[in-house]
């Protein structure tokens, strides 16, 4: 026991109940100072996250449209009514499945591209590495709306560079080919854009992680006769795991919440709404349709889903982490 | 120590149910000031100058007649109008006194308690007797007028005279002929769309439904029900959707086109026909098509009949929260008066809403004659219910057309759209 903890214990002694055993008292004292240190950020979080979340949940329990907001109609408490409407709507389930599949493809895509390029960046000379990073950071820095619009220009059916090149190399089927007409082609195009603007985060994170692995460890592995694959799987990957977890969770959260790219590139959800994802759907319900109650319910469902996915992923990671 | 748990649960329950989401309090005393600043919101235009000239004239006239009154005119972008009006309804202190708004937004704005009842004002305004009845109908909710029609917009059939002469075609006399003519044009000229009528252009689709004798929805005992599954309505929807086909306007290009894009395709020389409004004249004149086009009323299913046109247009209303309500009404009489409407037509091409002004305008300018003819032969309107904004925003009708155009069975598509309409009406 250090002098520091002793003095702290003395400091909290008078307020602690007498019948408590010393170890508990110490833990409680630690808890209190932890609370004290966390208080400022807790205050900010309650202000900027807690209150809006509280309002979101509250709105989702009412029939709350523009007429109710501006006082033109009385409020009506629906309880779970909005949720029942939402879960009973086949469209919601289609959109949910679409969102999960789309986010899954985007997460895997950006992880694969990001990790692949990070490994590549660790093995090439300075100049190509610098060019790679410049290109990646350029994509990262591009605002989502601008990026989506540029992609649309590139893939324009009449004047787009991509169609011109494809026709130029002899693929005449691409003459006037519309990249946003077929559901899966449109989703593929948007996924391409999303991966393009989100892989740099994975690249930078993983590159930093790879660089932070001490040379001695790798040297030891090769001295022990480990193959490249074995080194990658059993030395590098475990050391990268914390970073990989962060990159994956971030990607899941980002890609599940995709709005801009779908909204801009498929013109608000595609032909007959075939390319809707949850966030665009919520926007249409809440703001375009002034149905704030139902829109909030979608928001709450999305928040819960994201929390569940993240929790499952974290648990799975911890479990595998303990095994290896 | 465990006592806090039920306590916290109770607190949360109370918070969730007792307080309720925020609402604007409308119980405060209402003032009616006769001096000060009158705030006016008008829509911004691609080329605002001609509109501004007419408005400024009205402002000078009004300020000269009312001492100690200044009129503050703001131009708000049409695209973000919904956010602006929502903000104005939710925060009366930042709201204008007089505002211009689209007649399809009227029902939801009135439900939000946004605009005052002007029925009494119109009864005491002699000029109001000359307002076109079908246009005035678009300003009424439950028989009460909530806005003065400032101008109206009518759509008709634009066609390329050079293409029609080259192929020896006559302008179609029925909607079925419209389909065959459009197909023949694309056969002979594969570089052109037979007619550019996009999947998201529901204001072009509705006249087809009305011409077939159907309707979008019908009203019975105060509640609306979808009429899209009716035989007649389905015929109209089908005819329109058949225009979005590889032989006329390929779905890959046309299914996602909006009204503006449809007209742009025509103005850009990519289509032989389109359904365009009187307000699209400047855009078409400025494009490569130039003078090589003419306009006829959109035909109906019987030869010689015209499809009922959709009566679009903008209204001027007094905000319910206004503390200058008398002055606001006086200003509307000036700005929406006969003289200014005529000037607005000359400046912007906006069709007047007074029948006598319409006749004078048509006499002076033969170009506008087909539109006036459509207008005076009877117009129709979207269901006058607050649900319309929601239906519009959720793109229920465009989705229906797009589904049929991309191969869904029309019965299934109209049934699904009907369900969605009824759900929106039911809210």
Descriptive account of the structure:
Chain B: It holds the Pfam family SBP_bac_8. Chain B: This is N,N'-diacetylchitobiose transport system substrate-binding protein. Chain B: Residues 407-427 are annotated as: Disordered. Chain B: One of its GO terms (biological process) is maltose transport. Chain B: Residues 409-418 have a biased composition (Basic and acidic residues). The complex is a heterodimer of chains A (324) and B (427). With 324 residues, chain A is mostly helical. Chain A folds into two domains: 3-48, no CATH class; 89-323, MetI-like fold (Orthogonal Bundle), CATH 1.10.3720.10. Chain A has 14 helices and two strands, in the order ααβαβααααααααααα. Chain A has helices spanning 3-12, 22-60, 66-69, 81-87, 90-123, 126-141, 144-154, 161-168, 183-212, 215-223, 228-256, 260-265, 278-288, 292-323; strands spanning 62-63, 76-77. Chain A has a two-stranded antiparallel ribbon with strand order 1-2. In chain A, α4 (81-87) crosses α14 (292-323) and α5 runs antiparallel to α6. The longest helix of chain A is centred in the N-terminal third of the chain and has 39 residues, at 22-60. Chain A is flat. Chain A starts with a helix and ends with a helix. Residues 1-21 of chain A have low confidence and may be disordered. With 427 residues, chain B is of the alpha/beta class. Chain B has two domains: 36-146 and 312-380, D-Maltodextrin-Binding Protein, domain 2 (3-Layer(aba) Sandwich); 155-310 and 383-426, Periplasmic binding protein-like II (D-Maltodextrin-Binding Protein, domain 2). Chain B has 20 helices and 14 strands. In chain B, the strands form five sheets. Chain B has a five-stranded mixed sheet. At the A-B interface, α2, β1, α3 and α13 of A face α1, α3, α11, α18 and α19 of B.
For the structure shown, list the relevant keywords.
heterodimer, A: 324 residues, mainly alpha, MetI-like fold, two-stranded antiparallel sheet, 2 strands, 1% strand, flat, disordered N terminus, B: 427 residues, alpha/beta, D-Maltodextrin-Binding Protein, domain 2, 2 domains, 5-stranded mixed beta sheet, 3-stranded antiparallel beta sheet, 20 helices, 46% helix, globular
């Amino acid at each position: 026991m250090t002098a520091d903890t002793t003095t702290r214990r003395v400091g909290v002694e008078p307020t602690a109940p007498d019948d408590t055993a010393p170890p508990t008292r110490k833990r409680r004292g630690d808890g209190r100072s932890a609370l004290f240190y966390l208080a400022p950020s807790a205050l900010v979080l309650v202000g900027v996250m807690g209150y809006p979340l509280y309002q979101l949940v509250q709105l989702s329990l009412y029939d709350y449209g523009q007429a109710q907001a501006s006082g033109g109609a009385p409020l009506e408490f629906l309880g779970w009514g909005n949720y029942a409407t939402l879960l009973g709507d086949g469209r919601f389930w289609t959109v949910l499945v679409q969102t999960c599949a789309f986010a899954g493809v985007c997460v895997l895509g950006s992880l694969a591209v990001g990790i692949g390029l990070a490994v590549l960046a660790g093995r090439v000379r300075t100049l190509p590495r610098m060019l790679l990073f410049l290109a990646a950071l350029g994509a990262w820095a591009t605002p989502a709306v601008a990026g989506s619009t540029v992609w649309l220009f590139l893939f324009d059916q009449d004047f787009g560079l991509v169609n011109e090149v494809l026709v130029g190399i002899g693929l005449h089927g691409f003459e006037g080919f519309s990249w946003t007409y077929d559901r899966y082609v449109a989703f593929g195009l948007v996924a391409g854009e999303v991966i393009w603007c989100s892989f740099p985060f994975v690249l930078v994170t993983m590159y930093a992680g790879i660089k932070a692995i001490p040379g001695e460890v790798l040297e030891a592995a090769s001295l022990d006769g480990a193959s490249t694959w074995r080194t990658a799987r059993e030395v590098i990957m475990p050391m990268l795991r914390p970073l990989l977890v962060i990159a994956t969770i971030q990607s899941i959260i980002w890609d599940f919440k995709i709005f801009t790219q779908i909204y801009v590139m498929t013109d608000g959800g595609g032909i007959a709404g075939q390319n809707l994802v949850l966030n665009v759907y919520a926007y249409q319900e809440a703001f375009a349709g002034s149905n704030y109650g139902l829109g909030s319910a979608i928001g709450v469902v999305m928040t819960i889903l994201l929390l569940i996915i993240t929790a499952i992923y974290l648990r799975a990671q911890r479990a595998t982490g303990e095994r290896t | 120590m465990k006592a806090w748990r039920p306590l916290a649960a109770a607190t949360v329950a109370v918070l969730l149910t007792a307080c309720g989401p925020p609402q604007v309090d409308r119980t405060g005393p209402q003032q009616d000031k006769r001096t000060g600043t009158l705030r006016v919101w008008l829509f911004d235009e691609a080329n605002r100058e001609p509109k501004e000239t007419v408005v400024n004239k009205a402002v000078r006239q009004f300020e000269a007649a009312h001492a100690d009154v200044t009129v503050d005119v703001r131009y708000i972008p049409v695209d973000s109008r919904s956010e602006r009006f929502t903000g104005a309804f939710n925060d009366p202190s930042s709201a204008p006194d007089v505002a211009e708004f689209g007649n399809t937004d009227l029902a939801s704005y009135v439900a939000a308690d946004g605009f005052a009842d002007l029925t009494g004002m119109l009864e005491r305004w002699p000029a109001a007797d000359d307002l076109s009845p079908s246009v005035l109908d678009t300003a009424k909710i439950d028989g009460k007028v909530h806005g003065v029609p400032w101008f109206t917009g009518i759509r008709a059939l634009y066609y390329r005279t050079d293409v029609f002469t080259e192929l020896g075609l006559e302008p179609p006399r029925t909607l079925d002929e419209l389909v065959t003519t459009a197909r023949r044009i694309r056969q002979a000229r594969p570089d052109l769309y037979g007619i550019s009528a996009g999947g998201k252009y529901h204001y072009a689709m509705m006249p087809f439904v009305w011409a077939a004798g159907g309707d979008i929805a019908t009203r019975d005992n105060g509640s609306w029900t979808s009429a899209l599954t009716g035989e007649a309505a389905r015929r109209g929807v089908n005819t329109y959707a058949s225009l979005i086909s590889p032989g006329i306007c390929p779905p890959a290009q046309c299914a996602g086109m909006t009204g503006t894009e449809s007209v742009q395709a025509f103005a850009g020389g990519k289509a032989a026909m389109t359904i365009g409004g009187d307000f699209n004249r400047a855009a078409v004149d400025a494009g490569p098509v130039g003078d090589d086009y003419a306009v006829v009323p959109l035909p109906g299913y019987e030869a010689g009949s015209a499809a009922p046109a959709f009566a679009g247009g903008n209204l001027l209303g007094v905000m319910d929260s206004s503390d200058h309500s008398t002055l606001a009404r006086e200003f509307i009489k000036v700005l929406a008066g006969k003289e200014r409407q005529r000037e607005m037509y000359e400046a912007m091409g906006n069709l007047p809403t007074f029948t006598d002004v319409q006749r004078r305008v048509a006499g002076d300018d033969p170009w506008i004659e087909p539109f006036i003819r459509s207008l005076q032969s009877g117009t129709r309107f979207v269901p006058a219910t607050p649900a319309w904004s929601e239906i519009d925003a959720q793109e229920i009708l465009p989705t229906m057309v797009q589904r049929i155009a991309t191969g869904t069975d029309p019965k299934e598509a109209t049934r699904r759209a009907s369900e969605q309409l009824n759900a929106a009406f039911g809210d």
